[in-house]
Amino acid sequence: MPDWNIPFKFYIDACGDGLGEALHQVQIIDDKATEGQLCYISRQIKPTEARYGSRQIQCLCLVWALEKLHYYIYGSVFEVITDCNAMKSLLNMKTPNRHILRWQIAIQEYRGNMTILHKAGSIHKNADGLRRWALANTPDNPAHLPLEDEPQIQIEGINITDIGTEFFEEVEEPYKQDKNCHILTSLLDVDCKDTSLVNALDEVWRNSYSEGRFHLFDGIIYHLTKRSCVMTLCSRLLINTTLNECHDSIYSGHLSEDRTLEKVKNCAWWPSWRKETIEYCHTCDRCQKANRSTGKKFGLMIHNQEPKSPCAVVHMDWVTALPPSGDKSYNSCLVIVDRYSKTPIFLPCHKDDTAMDTALLLLPLSLIFPALIIFFTGLGESSTSTICAGVGFFLEGNLSSSGWKYGLSKLTGKTGCFLETFSVSLTSTAFLPINLLIVKGPTN
C-alpha cells in the first residue's frame, strides 16, 4: 500500500511503439529500506503521436502518466526518473513549440513537488519493458487515452459535504477558557446590555461588538462582514490548522500571500488573523525556496572615496580572444587602470592563467605601492579570494583588496577597447606612462 508521507519514484519511458510508466516507493519493511512497485501502466501510441520526435514523445509520456496517476501523487513529493536527459529542461525551456508549451502548463501544479532525474538507459529496465510491449490503446485498458473523434460525455453534478457535530464541539469547547469568547457568549445568548461586561472585552473584540459584527448561533460565535460570515476561533490548535489548510494542504497548493489572506478571510476570524497569515506565508520554507530572486547579481550602489595620490586604487580586468603573439604566444591582456590618473597598464598573459598566475603578475606593482587597493571587475568570489591570498602571501598582508560587482567599473572596459591604438601610439618612447610615473613616484 502507498504511504503518502514518503516520496514516490516515477519511472517513465517511451518509444515509437508505446508509453510505459512504473510507480515505485521506498518503504521500511522489517527495518530495511526496500523499493517496491505500486502500479504499472502502459499504452500504445495513437497515429497522430507517431509523428512526434523523441523529446516530444518522452514529454507526452510524462504528461499522460501524471494524468492517469493523479490520485496517487497529487500533493505528494515524487521523483521522475527517465533515460532522456533533455527531459530535465522541460519546465525551463525558453522557446517551446505549441505541444511543449501546452504540456508545460499542464504540469505546473506538480512543479513544487516534482524532481526530474536522469538514469542511463542500460539500467532503466522496468519502464523500458512496459513501453516495448505496451497494452493496446482500447477501452479495456485502464490507462487508455480516447481518440480525438470519440464523443465526450459531459456530466454535471453538485458535491455536498456534511460536517459532523464533533467539529462544532471542537470549536465551541475552547470558548469556556477564553475570556473574550466567554463574555461574548454571555452577552449574545440573552441579548445582555451589561456595560461592565462590554468594557471587560479587549479593544479589538469590544470594537467589533460595538459595530454589531458578532452573532451567536448553536453555541458558535460568528463574525459578520459585508461579504462573509465566518466562525470565530480562539484555540491555537484550530488557528494553526486553519492556516495549514489555507496554505500548505493539497487543496491550497501554497498560494500567494494575497490569495491565502482571501481564503482565511472566508474561513475563520480571530483578532490577529491578518498579521499571522502574512507571517505564516513569509516563513513557509517551500514558498521561500520557490520564490527566490533570480538573475544577475547587481553591485551595491555605493560611492567609493576618490584616491588622493597615484596608484592608490586601481581597477583591473581581462581582454581575451586576442591573436597569439610573442615568444610565449600570449593571447590575452590584463588591463590595470589607475583610478587617480586614469593611466593604464597592459600585462600580457594567457587566457588559461590561474588565479595564482594573476597574483604573480600583480606582485611587482604591489611591491612598489604597498598601500594599493585593487578592484576586481567581473570576477567571482572564489577567484578574487585566491588572487588576494596569493598577493597577500608575498606581501605579508600589506595589500588591501575589495571585490567589485559586475558592471560597476567602466574604466577597465573602456580602456580595453582602445588597447591596440594606445599600444601603437607609444612605440616612439618604448615606455608606458605608468613607467614614467613609477620613476617619479615614491621609492620606499
List the helices and strands and how they pair.
Layout: E1 8-14, E2 18-29, E3 32-44, H1 54-68, H2 70-73, E4 78-82, H3 98-106, E5 114-118, H4 126-132, H5 165-172, H6 179-189, H7 195-199, H8 203-210, E6 214-217, E7 220-224, E8 229-232, H9 236-247, H10 257-265, E9 268-269, H11 273-282, H12 285-290, E10 313-319, E11 332-338, E12 344-349, H13 355-368, E13 373-377, H14 381-395, E14 400-404, H15 411-417, H16 419-425, H17 433-440
Parallel strand pairs: 1-4, 4-5, 8-9, 10-13, 13-14
Antiparallel strand pairs: 1-2, 2-3, 6-7, 7-8, 10-11, 11-12
Helix pairs in contact: 1-3, 10-11, 13-14
Domain Reverse transcriptase RNase H-like: 4-110
GO molecular function, one term: nucleic acid binding
Domain Integrase zinc-binding: 238-292
Characterization of the model:
With 444 residues, this protein is an alpha/beta fold. Helix content is 35%, strand content 20%. The chain is built from 17 helices and 14 strands. It has helices spanning 54-68, 70-73, 98-106, 126-132, 165-172, 179-189, 195-199, 203-210, 236-247, 257-265, 273-282, 285-290, 355-368, 381-395, 411-417, 419-425, 433-440, and strands spanning 8-14, 18-29, 32-44, 78-82, 114-118, 214-217, 220-224, 229-232, 268-269, 313-319, 332-338, 344-349, 373-377, 400-404. Strands 3-2-1-4-5 form a five-stranded mixed sheet. Strands 12-11-10-13-14 form a five-stranded mixed sheet, with helices on both faces. Strand 7 (220-224) and strand 8 (229-232) form a beta hairpin. Helix 1 (54-68) packs parallel to helix 3 (98-106), helix 10 runs antiparallel to helix 11 and helix 13 crosses helix 14. Residues 396-444 have low confidence and may be disordered. Residues 4-110 form the Reverse transcriptase RNase H-like domain. Residues 238-292 form the Integrase zinc-binding domain.
